[in-house]
Design goal:
It is a single chain. The chain is of the alpha/beta class. It is built from 15 helices and 11 strands. Strands 3, 4, 5, 6, 7, 8, 9, 10 and 11 form a 9-stranded mixed sheet that branches. A two-stranded antiparallel sheet has the order 1-2. A hairpin with a 2-residue loop joins β3 and β4. The longest helix is centred in the N-terminal third of the chain and has 42 residues. It starts with 9 loop residues before the first helix and ends with a helix.
């Protein structure tokens, strides 16, 4: 008997595929898979084609395809006039469902990861405070080795907690809450959180630790802060890794700029709408490869009051000056910078902007794990990738 005609018993098929014999019998009774041939004693005899069909069934079922659709796909439902066309239609529809579900899970995973970092930071890190003329900055330090500042805007200590933990065996890692964020304390008349103001805050924090150059990693708005720090205080920047500075100012895209400005303008009166609009135009919560575009719109749930208040500040005061910031290219050339972007951020606003900055500086754009929030969502992988970028 040739190999393609080899027959297998139900116990063998069960062991190979990982489905109990009773489950195989159940799928057969439900009409999900065609009944296999039987030998003279009535025992099931599966062909190689039967086994491959059942393997496919397992993948479809694990990804949530309804049993009725599986029955049509496998051919157990033999009413289709054009089985090949039907299978393409079924798989296409299921592919769409799986993709949409993956987007939902990715967003949920990002939220869960940030909450883990938030609670971990509360448990393991006690904040210290640095007084500024119009606010008090909360900061923390951990680990041993060269000084490394993790800089975000709006991300603060909580957003970097997991990444800081991953890097603390090689560096003295300093994180802080930018003014108006987290445990940093405002006073009446606090200056707006522009890149210029945030860079001076950061320079004061660096001076608290060292008078010499240090290492920096800035993500999103924090990368913009580092561009301004390099312009104002180039002597303190030993090396800076900039991850996805969202510089709409560098994109020749009037529609995108208009939508961003409208979102920021709406933030005070309608932060839910502002968050939705910025979420859609940035695409930053999605995972997109080189041949994938972020969806144009994904409806967000109603945000709790605390999140709405945070976004009144972030989108209403911090985000506008950040995304419309115009970097000084010549000043940036005078400091050591590395530009990187998420390997799953393709065709998103921040990666597009970072690629434009790379072109102006004549620098390569290095792929990093994850998407725009890879530093918080995939801290171990992100930390591993950072290692070579921070070496002398």
């Amino acid at each position: 008997m040739s190999e393609p005609d080899e027959l297998f018993g139900i116990a063998e098929v069960s062991a190979w595929i990982g489905l109990a014999p009773d489950t195989l019998r159940y799928f057969e009774r439900q009409g999900v898979v065609p009944s296999p041939r039987r030998d003279g004693a009535g025992r099931r005899q599966y062909t190689t084609a039967d086994v491959e069909l059942i393997r496919m069934l397992v993948h479809l079922r694990e990804t949530g395809m309804p049993l009725a659709d599986i029955a049509q796909f496998t051919g157990a439902d033999d009413k289709a006039g054009d089985p090949a066309r039907l299978r393409v239609e079924l798989l296409t529809a299921h592919h769409r469902r799986v993709r949409d579900r993956r987007e939902e899970l990715d967003r949920a995973l990002d939220v869960i990861t940030r909450k883990i970092a938030d609670f971990s930071d509360r448990i393991t890190s006690s904040a210290e405070f640095l007084d500024r003329p119009d606010c008090t900055l909360a900061f923390g330090a951990q680990g041993e080795g060269p000084l490394l500042f993790l800089v975000g805007a709006p991300a603060g200590r909580a957003g970097f907690a997991a990444l800081a933990h991953e890097l603390a065996d090689r560096f003295t890692v300093v994180t802080h809450d930018p003014r108006g964020i987290g445990a940093s304390r405002a006073v009446p008349g606090m200056a707006a959180p522009t890149p210029e103001v945030l860079a001076e805050d950061l320079a004061a924090l660096v001076d608290r630790f060292t008078g010499g150059p240090a290492l920096f990693v800035g993500t999103s708005g924090g990368a913009v802060t580092l561009l301004e720090l390099g312009k104002r205080h180039p002597d303190v920047v030993g090396r800076a890794v900039l991850h996805e500075p969202p510089l709409v100012s560098l994109l020749d895209d009037a529609d995108l700029a208009g939508r961003a400005a409208a979102a920021f303008e709406a933030a005070e009166a309608d932060p839910q709408r502002a968050v939705q609009e910025f979420f859609d135009l940035s695409g930053a919560a999605h995972h997109t490869g080189p041949d994938q575009m972020p969806p144009a719109h994904v409806a967000l749930p109603e945000l709790p009051v605390a999140e709405l208040d945070k976004n009144r500040y972030f989108l209403g005061q911090m985000a506008g000056p950040t995304v419309f910031y115009v970097p000084d290219i010549e000043a940036t050339r005078r400091v050591s910078v590395t530009l990187c972007a998420g390997s799953l951020s393709h065709h998103q606003m921040a990666r597009r902007a970072t690629r434009a900055l790379a072109g102006l500086l004549g620098l390569p754009l290095i792929d990093m794990p994850g998407n725009h929030v890879g530093a918080s969502a995939e801290p171990a992988e992100f930390a591993h990738a950072l290692g070579p970028l921070l070496e002398p």
